[in-house]
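haha ok so turns out i had the wrong file open the whole time. this is the CORRECT one, sorry everyone. sequence first:
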Amino acid sequence: MGAASKSTVPTHRPPITSKTKSQTVKFQARSRSFPLWLIRLCYLQHRFSAFTWLLVVTMLTVYGWTVYFQHRWNQAYNTLETLQQNERQLMSTNERLKDKLALQAQQPEMGLVPPLPEEAIVLQPATQSSVPAKNSIELTSKLSAQNHKLTNIPLGY
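then structure:
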């Protein structure tokens, strides 16, 4: 039963021949199975291709960020240099104005008199309470009361 029920499949198919005008062409049926090493190689190529595209996209992103941040840094640095230059110009102008005012103050027609030490006004420091305030409301009320008392006395020019 076992030998009679088995059908035999030929492992090699005979070539199919086709005749054209003057030549005979032999076709051999191909099997669709590829060697295992070729299948694995194609699989690896597919995976490495996807990895390569991912790597290219990542590198382009990093390059874009680098260029963008370098551009932003250059803009900020130029702004810093401009601000520093403006600061130097303002300081120079301020010093020139001070010098000009000092020279004008030395001229007799201005009517300015140098200060004398005996005409100096000396202010006494405000007294501080020895007991610290319990909360900020008490502290502000005490300070405002002290300031109210002090504002009635002329302090300067």
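The CA atoms of residues 90 and 96 lie 10 Å apart.
again sry for the mixup
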